Amino acid sequence: MPDVQSSNLTSANSAASSDPEVTEFIAKFLDRLKSESLKNQLQLVEELASSGEAGLAVLMRFLLDRQEHPGIIEGKVYQTLVAAESTTAQTFLQTHFPQGIVPLRSDRGVDYAPLQALLAQQDFQAADRLTLEKMCELAGPQAVQRKWLYFTEVENFPVVDLQTINSLWLVHSEGKFGFSVQRELWLAAGKNWERLWYQIGWKTGNNWTRYPQEFTWNLSAPRGHLPLSNQLRGVRVIAALLSHPAWE
């Protein structure tokens, strides 16, 4: 049997097939992906991604088994397959997840597929811009034209749409970004906005973080750093977002 310890997964470069050794490899790591802590799961996904077609076969099988309830680990697996230079992986995604892993529900007919695509590619800066565009689309033609939101428009957002946008950010950022994360930090800060700005990296000293060059557009950013929530227009918009019934 091949050595399939996580420390040397790269030894398992044989293509996934009916080979009993590969079958055993897939079964072993499927079990680990489903049972270990989130931290270990995330590390294991990276190790599997570097182990060739057998590792990718584990990730594809895992995603099929868990597609009904996409979460942080499922998002990481999906992103890994998107980035994989594998014809098999790309065909698998096109066949089973043509629009991505998060269900794109909207009560107002807004298409969130482009946002999911950007987030899956970890293009957080473009995804942030598109998030505002989609929220303006959600608010209506006047908001689309002006390119920013009134807090009263946010208050009237459908629960389903805000939950979809939030899930996209949460699932594709290893749980680091999203309105629900910002809300959690805001509540923990006693709803103190100044404390929140510093904690999520929107302010340093007396200075606001400058857009876009001073923001961090990758997972090294502070938790809750993104999306920006139109923060340069004061607290009313983000207050409406974080107080929305979508999180109750």
Automatic annotation (TrEMBL):
Gene Ontology MF terms in the entry: tetrapyrrole binding
Annotated ranges, domain GUN4-like: 106-245
GO cellular component: outer membrane-bounded periplasmic space
GUN4 N-terminal ARM-like repeat domain ranges (all copies): 26-98
Protein name: GUN4 domain-containing protein
The species this protein was found in: Leptolyngbya sp. NK1-12
